[in-house]
Design a protein that fits this description.
With 448 residues, this protein is α/β, with parallel strands linked by helices. The chain has three domains: 49 residues; 131 residues, Leucine Dehydrogenase, chain A, domain 1 (Rossmann fold, 3-Layer(aba) Sandwich); 163 residues, NAD(P)-binding Rossmann-like Domain (Rossmann fold), CATH 3.40.50.720. The chain has 17 helices and 14 strands. It has a seven-stranded mixed sheet with strand order 9-8-7-6-10-11-12, with helices on both faces. Strands 1-2-4-3-5 form a five-stranded mixed sheet, sandwiched between helices. Strands 13-14 form a two-stranded antiparallel sheet. Strand 13 and strand 14 form a beta hairpin. Helix 8 packs across helix 16 and helix 15 packs across helix 16. The longest helix has 23 residues. 51% of the residues are buried. The protein binds glutamic acid. Glutamic acid binds next to strand 3 and helix 15.
Length: 448
């Protein structure tokens, strides 16, 4: 079957079923472009209709979270868990609490998660969940009450060998603690049903740092591949959460200059780069603060640029670490014109399709989040194995394992994405194909 019609046929089928789910269709398109030729060249993949099956979540769970807040008022939120694919292991992926959460967003995240998890080489399927709850400005008590109500619904669908959620945007150590406590009370079981737990109750060292640190380990590998070094580079980071701050810390420790952090309200710019104490302060305080970046500015650290994104800043490397579709075509053109030559995603799908086209067109190094931010879920996989053995490995061992996993993901991307004729590595293609082969082989082996 000719390539084009095959792509159109499958994509149109999915697009008709999921009309209006823009983020989901965007994620599917990005993957289909690269994997269709592999699919077409493999008889058993075609026989088993692997691509179409991969474009449909195995299960989507919806529930209403009705809860009483600390003032005694009733609130109503929507909750979901998308269990996309379990061929490689228990569904695995985070929970996001954010007013923008909807089914399309969670479906795209669950879909991406399957590919990301496949790249780690660990036995994990893919899923994602969350709620349209906005935790900003809420009391600790309200957060706890919401987490408990959310878990009362979610608990019947998850389990250490079934589905293992973790954190994502606005779900960090505190929320995981409350969620886990409610699960344990309801089920009378101490099991590795969530990752990102506290160190005192089955959590793993290095889990908190893993996504941001992993991103920089990947960047290290990219630099080596391109005969350069992270030291002395100007790096623009967006975001001010767990991923952004740990990426900023590791990059700074490796001698790079991180000149920005940002949130939905603006950008904090520091021309000579943030120093380690400033970043460590932000790491310690960000969960409690209403705006950690203006807190830093108030301490005389950096210039606060209200309402601005960081993409206009001159840099060598850009690390979008905030959220989906935060970097568009104009931002991409501005970055390129200002001399940026590498973009590695710390967030999930932060670059729009058009922005990616700009990077490809200008032959920039561009690495999709499913490869470069896989460190978080990789450490979650290691937390699961520690839970299964009722053991706890030390931080150095886990950090080394994280580095090895990021290196091996990089290698796989290069193997599958190398365009020798043009001396270019298409990391998106490499990541999609490497993950797809693993996923597809697991599905074929298990029959229809
Ligand atoms: N939310 C993270 C991600 O996007 C981590 C998921 C996990 O640890 O399960 O990969």
């Amino acid at each position: 079957m000719p390539y084009e019609s095959n792509f159109d046929e499958i994509y149109n089928f999915v697009a008709q079923k999921f009309e209006g789910e823009n983020e989901y269709l965007q994620a599917v398109r990005e993957v289909l472009h690269d994997i269709i030729p592999i699919y077409n060249a493999n008889e058993s993949y075609k026989r088993d209709d692997i691509v179409r099956r991969l474009c449909f979540p195995e299960r989507v769970i919806y529930f209403t979270v009705s809860w009483m807040n600390s003032s005694g008022d009733i609130e109503v939120n929507q909750g979901w868990r998308v269990q996309h694919n379990s061929a490689m292991g228990p569904y695995k992926g985070g929970l996001r609490f954010h007013p923008t959460v909807n089914l399309s967003v969670l479906k795209f995240l669950a879909f991406e998660q399957c590919f990301k998890n496949a790249l780690t080489g660990l036995p994990m399927g893919g899923g994602k969940g969350g709620a349209d709850f906005n935790p900003k400005g809420r009391s600790d008590r309200d957060i706890m009450l919401f987490c408990q109500a959310f878990m009362r619904e979610l608990q019947r669908h998850i389990g250490a060998n079934t589905d293992v959620p973790a954190g994502d945007i606005n779900v960090g150590a505190r929320e995981i603690g409350y969620l886990y406590g409610e699960y344990r009370r309801l089920n009378n079981k101490f099991e590795g049903v969530l990752t990102g737990k506290g160190l005192e109750f089955g959590g793993s060292y290095v889990r908190t740092e893993a996504t941001g640190f992993g991103l920089i380990y990947f960047l290290d590998a990219v630099c080596k591949q391109h005969n350069t070094d992270i030291e002395g580079k100007n790096i623009v980071v967006s975001g001010a959460g767990n991923v952004a701050l740990h990426a900023a810390l590791k990059a700074t420790q490796k001698g790079a200059k991180v000149i920005s952090l940002s949130n939905s309200r603006g950008t904090l710019y520091k021309q000579d780069g943030f120093d380690e104490p400033a970043i460590k302060f932000a790491i310690a305080e960000h969960a409690k603060s209403n705006n950690i970046l203006t807190d830093l500015a108030d301490k005389g650290i950096g210039d606060w640029k209200k309402g601005k994104t960081p993409w206009h800043l001159t840099c060598d490397i850009a690390l979008p670490c905030a959220t989906q579709n935060e970097l568009d075509k104009d931002d991409a053109l501005t970055l390129v014109n200002n001399g940026c030559n590498m973009v590695l995603e710390g967030a999930n799908m932060p670059c729009t399709d058009e922005a990616q086209d700009v990077f490809k067109d200008k032959a920039l190094v561009y690495v999709p989040g499913k490869a470069s931010n896989a460190g978080g879920v990789a450490l979650s996989g290691l937390e699961m194995s520690q839970n299964a053995m009722f053991s706890q490995r030390n931080a150095d061992t886990l950090d080394e394992q994280l580095q090895n996993i990021m290196l091996s993901i990089h290698e796989r991307c290069v193997e599958e994405g190398k365009d020798t004729a043009n001396n270019y590595i298409d990391y998106m293609k490499g990541a999609n194909i490497a993950a797809f082969r693993r996923l597809a082989d697991a599905i074929v082996a298990q029959g229809v």
